Amino acid sequence: MSPLPPLAIVLILSVAVHFPATVTSGDLPSFREAPAFRNGVECPRTTWSSLSKGSYNPSIIHIAMTLDATYLRGSIAGVLSVLQHASCPENIVFHFLASHRRAELRRIIVTTFPYLSFHLYHFDTNLVKGKISSSIRRALDQPLNYARIYLADLLPGGVRRIIYFDSDLIVVDDVAKLWEINLGPHVLGAPEYCHANFTNYFTAKFWSNPAFTTSFRGRKPCYFNTGVMVIDLWRWREGKFTERLETWMRIQKRYRIYQLGSLPPFLLVFAGDVEGVEHRWNQHGLGGDNLEGLCRNLHPGPVSLLHWSGKGKPWLRLDSKRPCPLDSLWAPYDLFRHASLLSDS
């Protein structure tokens, strides 16, 4: 069975919203079961179970996301969007990273996506203990926000390439197109935005110190958003890029050279050495800025992925009855069981 068209998904969701809600104080959100998505006849028959390095299979798409109570609703919507638009949904393996309540999170994934192939890994927050400094927004300071730095350490050797997705986005295209990009000699691929004012991502203390600024020597650095990345984990491990990122985190603790959480270390290590991906794969900034989260419009051009980076999250704005126009594009993927939508019986 091929993935259902968007209209069919909307109809299924509209019928299911009358299920009773079970969300109480202290509980994780409750979700409706997603439809089963099956491969089309053109999809290669393949499975992924071996954890050995020699088991790499390019037909299997590996996607990493984090799971936590705050962003769980966004993560569930993101998974549904990937499956709905994938040409070969049964060939996708999700790798979830969580620091707390793993048993509960596993149960939610299993009951919401009974047919999903996934693995759940423990992210030890002690890995970043003493390395995180306060930033412009509290959400950016959470240890799980730094888990993307440790993907090469947490995932098994059989995973050569990974797509990393933030928990506040939806995919509206076949993710295989993103998976199949050629990274060339690069470790990381992402949409780049060279028109952005790069100086804004670091403090005056950084730019006034030649010991810091020379880190960009020989590169033409451009901004990229770390919420959508394609990473060659084998090259990452060989180049010890986790250690390089941690070095900048330690420097930040001492000198305060940036204020935007886990993003600046990635810019310091990779900017100017990234395989550029079409902008359609990260229509970011839909959550507004990091302070007010005001409504924003789409960037010009085609769209394959919508990303609510910034302070404003679509599920919060929809619940508050003050949504932005583009939040309606996220709503059809929301499997959350609303407490107010109880059965009349």
Features:
disordered N terminus, 13% strand, 11 strands, 345 residues, two-stranded antiparallel ribbon, seven-stranded mixed β-sheet, alpha/beta, single chain
Describe this structure as you would to a colleague.
Its EC number is 2.4.1.-. It is found in: Endomembrane system. Keywords: Glycoprotein, Glycosyltransferase, Membrane, Signal, Signal-anchor, Transferase, Transmembrane, Transmembrane helix. The protein is α/β, with parallel strands linked by helices. Helices cover 27% and strands 13% of the residues. It is built from 12 helices and 11 strands. The strands form 3 sheets. A 7-stranded mixed β-sheet has the order 3-2-1-4-9-6-10. It has a two-stranded antiparallel sheet with strand order 5-11. A two-stranded antiparallel sheet has the order 7-8. α2 links the parallel β1 and β2. α9 packs across α10. The longest helix has 15 residues. The protein starts with 5 loop residues before the first helix and ends in a 15-residue tail after the last helix. The N terminus is likely disordered.
